[in-house]
Input
Amino acid sequence: MRHQKRTAKLGRTGSHRNAMLANLVCSLIQHKRVTTTLAKARAARSVAEKMVTLGKNGTIHDRRLAAAKLRHNSQRMLKSKALIAQAHKNDVVRILFDEIAPAFKERRGGYTRIIKLNRRQGDAADLAILEWVELPVAAPAPAAAPAKTETAAAGQSESAPAASGGEATPEKK
Output
C-alpha cells in the first residue's frame, strides 16, 4: 500500500522524472513562464520553490546544490570564448541567484503561480501555466505592432492607385 507517499510519479521512472522536472524548472528560470500539463506544473512547483529558497541564501554551497539539482552543465567543456559568453548569459544558476532570488528576498514562500488552462486537443490533458508571482513576463506584443502598420501602409498605397484609375488592379480579359 502507498500510504503517505505523496510523490507524483507522472508515469515515469525516478531518474526520468527528476530529469524532466529539472528541465522544466530550467525553462521556467530562463523564460519566466512555462505552459505544461497541470500534473507536471504541480510537481515542478515544489522543485522551483526549493531552488528559490536556495537562491535566497546565496552561498557557494547553495549554488552547488542548485547546480546539482538542475543538472547544470559546467562551462569547462566549451572551447571558444563566444560559446562561453553565450553560456554565461543563459546560465540558469546565475539567473536564479542574481535575478530571481533577490526579487523574492522579502517574500516567505509562494514564489510560483499555476494558472489553469483548457484541455489539450490530442489527449484531453489539463494544461496550466507555471510562472513566477512577482516577476514581469515580457510579452511578444511589440513584434505584432509593426506588422499592423505595414499592412495599413500597404492598404493605403494599393487603394490610392485604384481610386485614380491606375494599373494596380489586374485587368480581366
Summary: The longest helix spans residues 141-163. The beta strands are 33-37, 112-119, 126-132. The chain has a mean pLDDT of 80. The helical segments are 14-31, 38-57, 60-69, 81-89, 92-103, 141-163.
